Amino acid sequence: MWTLKFLCLWLLAATVWAGAVPGQPPLDDDDDMHPDLQQIHSRTTARGLKKEKTQEYWLEASKEHILEKLEYVRNEKKAKNIILFLGDGMGLATLAAARNYIGGEEQKLSFEQFPYTGLSKTYCVDKIVPDSASTSTSYLCGVKANYGTIGVNAHVRRGDCLAMANTTNHVFSIAKWAMDAGKAAGFVTTTRVTHASPSGNYAHTADREWENNALLEEACGDQAEQLDDIAVQLIHGEVGRKLKVMLGGGRRNFYDQELYKNGRRTDGRDLVAEFESLSKGNKYVKNRKNLLKVDATETDRLLGLFSKSHMHYHLEQLADEENSEPTLEEMTEKAIEMLEQEENGYFLFVEGGKIDISHHDTMARIALDETAEFSKAIKLAKKLTSKKDTLIVVTSDHSHTFSVGGYQPRGSDIFGEAKSTGTDGKPYLPLSYANGKSFDSFYDTETHQRVDPLSLLSDDAAQLFPATVPLESETHGGEDVGVFASGPWAHLFTGVYEQNTIPHLLAYAACVGDGRTACD
Is 132 a catalytic residue? Predict the structure, then answer.
């Protein structure tokens, strides 16, 4: 026993002595912020980046960048087609970490190669940090709104059934503006097709949760008789019934529970059957095989519901030998095939929606993989279209409290440990969240100490990453998000601007809507 105590005292003394090196002054505040970390070999050298050690490399790279910028020629032709890609919850920290995930910090995601970039301010009318409902109203309908509401102005607060019924409070999306101008419109998402982001294209609701009649009736009672839930608005609404392509998850909101075991409706309706009965040219598919078989020349409108709720993560799809869901890339390709049949052009909305959902669960590894998949879909869309007549804009609705910290070596595993320790002597991870459900996993509330994060590391894709504040679900972040543009009038998307400006810029380029356009 005494031997153990002596050993502990000796180790403590050794630690103190090691920190007081004779002949050296104590660390000042700047040294604390920027410690002299041990140089550790990393895979950076293995990637052939030794050239970065020379000044010539950086000087030449800067010259090339200037030349590249000088070669940009503004395209001021009318945009025939518009594609808006939305990385839900894809903040700037997510982009930085995703570069490491795809091969290294010096890499670029496909859309980061677009010639024009800007920043969008994401706050909504009643909150500094918004949700995906209010932001969808902003970047699709051109009007900022209240938290939790979709397709309505700020006179409608969340849950206000009476205000929702007042159609003068309804606002319409660029999908409608495009269709009113004779173009086709559609959307693709990896979430439920009735979820917050995609429903901004076609719905008007005081609460994003009202995806089926049961939820609407529970909240509004008798007033619900005069209102339509989001799924009904997709099939029969003023905008929804005209959309040419609708692909994603969420079958449960379209079926009564007596007709489908996972159904959430209680009104006896089968909205998929109702969609099919509207026209012989309407086609419904529920798996990847049937989606890929769809002949765009023989299909007027396409509805695809590939899961009961949100679609599975890409990594889950890869791990499941019986997976029947298409990838975001495959859905995007089919949507473009369908929409390009319209000679007057189209508007397409594509959402990588599960970046956000994985961040809410503090599953950083999955969030970065979903970001990489999102990038692949954009790369394909760029290949299938022409920058001469197709404006492609990539942005996010909001960020998350996700961060990349520490001073880990270039090329190191971003999911591993930082190459320094905390003041408690324990290691920490470069990736973390300001809040979220993982708090209890990484902090022992009985001993009031951090749990060694290395003891929790694994190769499991669903691994959680540390959170500072305990919450059931990690929150969004309030900082600006990136906007990346290519094609006609892409140069308009530079600078820092309100998020609700985005659809007006899209409309300007395509000469749709009631505002000022390039054709004026």
Answer: yes
